[in-house]
Amino acid sequence: MSETRVVAICGSLRDNSHTRKSLRIALEAAENAGASTELLDLREWELPVFDADRGDAGDAEAFRERVRAADSVILGTPVYHGSFSAPLKNALDYCGFDEFEDTTIGLLAVAGGRFPITALEQLRTVSRALDAWVIPHQVAIPRASSAYEDGKLVDDELREMIEVLGAEAVQYAHIEPDPASFESGENVGADD
């Protein structure tokens, strides 16, 4: 079997992003579990607002290639208005079954407030619609500003949860997925 490849997609555009810092912790744990890793920082990709008539705009094809090459993808998002970020949604809109079908997905959400769970539920739904296999363990980081001090994660319990997510991205990277989900049969894409 070839080396396991884990990619994390950071849905935050902020320079001092707690989401990005958390994804780096997860990727370090994946490396420690034997995987090669890459952070796809959406600040570095030209992905204009998705238009189905221009699906290859900007860096779309190169971005899809990186996602397609992954055995596991960790999706990381800040929570905005109870949902996941627009940059992450836009990046996912450029992808489809070719990139995600039978791929293992890990989920991580970071909130300034107390309730990052709805964003995780929504990402789980999107992932299932793409026929990805979503790791049951997920990471919710509430009140992120108190979990991080001077750019460092100071909450040991959260660190362990993030590290477990990274390790499980490797552990379950080659899992035999279930049959296609109901959601994927209803996901016809942008052929309207």
From TrEMBL:
<dbReference type="InterPro" id="IPR029039">
    <property type="entry name" value="Flavoprotein-like_sf"/>
</dbReference>
<dbReference type="GO" id="GO:0016491">
    <property type="term" value="F:oxidoreductase activity"/>
</dbReference>
<dbReference type="Pfam" id="PF03358">
    <property type="entry name" value="FMN_red"/>
</dbReference>
<feature type="domain" description="NADPH-dependent FMN reductase-like">
    <location>
        <begin position="4"/>
        <end position="144"/>
    </location>
</feature>
<protein>
    <submittedName>
        <fullName>NADPH-dependent FMN reductase</fullName>
    </submittedName>
</protein>
<dbReference type="GO" id="GO:0010181">
    <property type="term" value="F:FMN binding"/>
</dbReference>
<dbReference type="InterPro" id="IPR050712">
    <property type="entry name" value="NAD(P)H-dep_reductase"/>
</dbReference>
<comment type="similarity">
    <text>Belongs to the SsuE family. Isf subfamily.</text>
</comment>
<dbReference type="InterPro" id="IPR005025">
    <property type="entry name" value="FMN_Rdtase-like_dom"/>
</dbReference>
<dbReference type="GO" id="GO:0005829">
    <property type="term" value="C:cytosol"/>
</dbReference>
